[in-house]
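Researcher: Re-running this chain for the archive, since the previous output was lost when a drive failed. Same request as before.
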Amino acid sequence: MRSCSICKKLRIVPGCLDDYKQLAHYHYRDSRTGPFAAIFTLRPDSAVVGCSGTKTVGVIVYRTPSPSLELRNIATGNFFAGFDKSTQLALINKNIRCISRVIIEPRFRGLGLASRLVRQTMPKMNVPIIEAMAVMGLVNPFFKKAGMKAYTAKMPARSIRLIEALSMVGIEEDQLIDAEKVQRKFDCLPSRQARFIELEIKRFLQSYGKRRDMQPGLERTRYILSKLTAKPIYYIWFNPGFARSLPDARYLSNIENYDKSSSINSY
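Model: Regenerated structure tokens:
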């Protein structure tokens, strides 16, 4: 009932950088977004569209895409591969936008608002493809709930081994987002389990140069968790508003004549 009453009073409107800055400190990555293509905010229905004086409940930031992603090539059947660099970059910039941030104010989390922000704003970008990279996609799969398809890179064997070892002592994968909580669990392990995990951690760190000699503690735990969760999931959405899906791309068959000067939607 709480979800229904709150969600009905919220609406998605075009936003600005100030909206993002209101919530940036809640995101697990740093607050810098770099150049962006569009920003949308989630606000109470009584909010006046604009950038001042209104509480921001959620925000989504779109940017231009990275020039080369292996999982993008898999998802699009190598449509963007095989061109010279300038043609490839022009095609990517014309046809793809990337979601760089989705943030919901903590008091409003758990209501499905993140997936709503994604689902309802993707068509507004008016491009064939929307993509996203999510480090914590397995823990909070709101992109998938919004209708995006997930592609996961293969996790290194050393990471799989350590994740399984952590699970054996009661530290599950969905808990790996909180280094302080994991460290507290390390500190409370019985001596036999503590020796077992320490051996597995040292084995894991052998692949990380000088970091292999890090001393036990919160700093080392943060580093380990950053590596265990560093393999992002790639998400992609094909805009049904376009005549054909991009991998078929017959509507772009005459690539030499496409309009390189077309500009992206901005708000």
